[in-house]
Amino acid sequence: MPSRMTGSQLAALYDAGNQWSADDDFFLAFVNERPSSRVLDLGCGTGRMTIAVAADGHTVVGIDPNAPSLAAARGKHGAVDVTWIDGTSAAIPQEIKFDVAIMTAHVAQAINDDGDWHRTLADVNRALAPGGRLAFDTRDPAARAWESWNPATTRRTHTLSDGSTVETWLESTPEIDGLVTLTEHRVFNGSSGEKGISVLAFRTEDQLRHDLNLAGFEVDHILGGWAGEDVGSGQGELIALARKPR
Ligand SMILES: C[S@@+](CC[C@H](N)C(=O)[O-])C[C@H]1O[C@@H](n2cnc3c(N)ncnc32)[C@H](O)[C@@H]1O
User: Which of 14, 41, 92, 245 has the fewest CB neighbours in a 10 Å radius?
Assistant: First the structure.
């Protein structure tokens, strides 16, 4: 069935369901450890974090393959201070050596093909200056987040900035070989529904350490929560902090 929500409404729906929160505070603080950095925000989506990083005085490149998300980002207040690029890690500008790279709000899980994932980490490593840092989050498979992605616990109604309303709920397959298929059902302005399907990769802490090392990174920490909790402490996150050796 063709989608009746426009790309711009889907981007607005993403923003309505993903307001600034503790994960954003964490990533912004991570970047701000060094003032005036050259920052790569890979998988920047609608640019919530990207624009906040630029507003704190950093030089920022935001890259994403989703054209409607990037269009929404480009239209936001403060967007003029960011260089926006349509694409994946293959589109990272060669002429800049970045001090910091971030992949926020579980971008790592959207890169569900292992070949793409290895290429992405290698591209990011190449793009960083010696000593450059990388941070990203991914959900810990041990916390089995997919078990709570069901209609009973996820039904929400969102009002978009154009006044339209969207009722959403999630459904998910169980994890098979590290992959989960997530379906977002949407009822737009009360009429019959449409859905968005995504396949998410769930990688273990051991896999992340292996993949980061393979791409040339040293792993500083893998945390389990936004206040620096240990893995397995109940927040269900794996937050990887790594660096390119000097
Ligand atoms: C959950 S969104 C997160 C967006 C943004 N980082 C945030 O904090 O809101 C995941 C993003 O990953 C992007 N993405 C998917 N595959 C990608 C790839 N191979 N390389 C970079 N980004 C990708 C999607 O287009 C989407 O915008």
Answer: 245
